[in-house]
Amino acid sequence: VSALYIVPTPIGNRADMVPRAVEVLQSVGLIAAEDMRHSRPLLQHFAIETPMLAYHDHSDERVVERVLSTLQGGDSVALISDAGTPLISDPGYRIVDAAHSAGIPVIPIPGACAAIAALSAAGLPSDRFCFEGFLPAKSQARFTALQALVAESRTLIFYEAPHRLLETVKGMAEVFGSDRIAVLAREVTKMHETIRRAPLGELAEWIAADSNQQRGECVLLVKGAPQRQQALDAEAERILYLLMDELP
Ligand code: SAM
């Protein structure tokens, strides 16, 4: 039976391509790719000659229909994005949703994901974490988004564009406090890979002092708020409800 395969690609180092991803990409009838021009060199490198189709979550309905009709016609389809795991701050949701609705099996191939790679090396609690993806680009909206996370006790994971990194780390120091521990995971699996753990205030200074840190791709991780703050918030909420009952 045909299936929709969700296939990860490397986030920098081609040696991270998993063998099963290569096998699947070689054997399916169609590859739905975020950007065909971007993926072509990788596919060529692994001698993958499968036809491609460009897919984005904003693509025309006809693109999703073409993927579905390929699947319903008995051919399997693989979904890839530019780098890492599709659907993780990347396109794919609409296709996976449509496949489930049509009763087509969806098969994930595990592999590279910047957020998980960064978390595994961050030395921050990893038993529970929140993946926040990209913060809003506008500074006021970003500030509001950070404020909403101030009492979150789980480790926070963000993707950030290099040109906004410094401003974001400064904003985090302001909102979460400059003593809160954070980790910058930059250029993971690449030549200039850097994993740096420091309090937010110190991290901001370090990034400001070295413009090389404002280049390439990065993941930011922030230690969660101490549980005590959550307990205090819960206590404040309990008292608020008690008072509200008493008010006319
Ligand atoms: N789907 C991808 C994944 O599984 O990680 C993420 C795609 S998202 C559009 C791209 C963002 O992921 C970058 O802006 C950066 O925040 C992060 N990223 C991707 N590759 C990275 C790398 N090698 N090192 C650090 N961060 C990376």
Summarize the helices and strands and which ones pair or pack:
Layout: E1 4-6, H1 19-27, E2 30-33, H2 36-45, E3 52-54, H3 61-72, E4 77-80, H4 93-101, E5 106-108, H5 114-122, E6 129-134, H6 139-147, E7 155-160, H7 165-176, E8 181-186, E9 194-199, H8 200-209, E10 218-222, H9 227-246
Parallel strand pairs: 1-4, 1-5, 2-3, 2-4, 6-7
Antiparallel strand pairs: 7-10, 8-9, 8-10
S-adenosylmethionine is lined by residues 11-12, 81, 83-85, 88-90, 113-115, 159-161, 185-190, 217-219.
Provide an overview of this structure.
The chain is built from nine helices and ten strands. The strands form two sheets. The protein has a five-stranded parallel β-sheet. The protein has a five-stranded mixed β-sheet with strand order 6-7-10-8-9, sandwiched between helices. Strand 8 and strand 9 (194-199) form a beta hairpin. The model has no long low-confidence stretch (mean pLDDT 96). It has helices spanning 19-27, 36-45, 61-72, 93-101, 114-122, 139-147, 165-176, 200-209, 227-246, and strands at 4-6, 30-33, 52-54, 77-80, 106-108, 129-134, 155-160, 181-186, 194-199, 218-222. The chain is α/β, with parallel strands linked by helices. The structure holds S-adenosylmethionine. S-adenosylmethionine binds next to helix 5, strand 7, strand 8 and strand 10.
Number of strands: 10
Shape: globular
Structural class: alpha/beta
- H and E order: EHEHEHEHEHEHEHEEHEH
Strand order of the largest sheet: 3-2-4-1-5
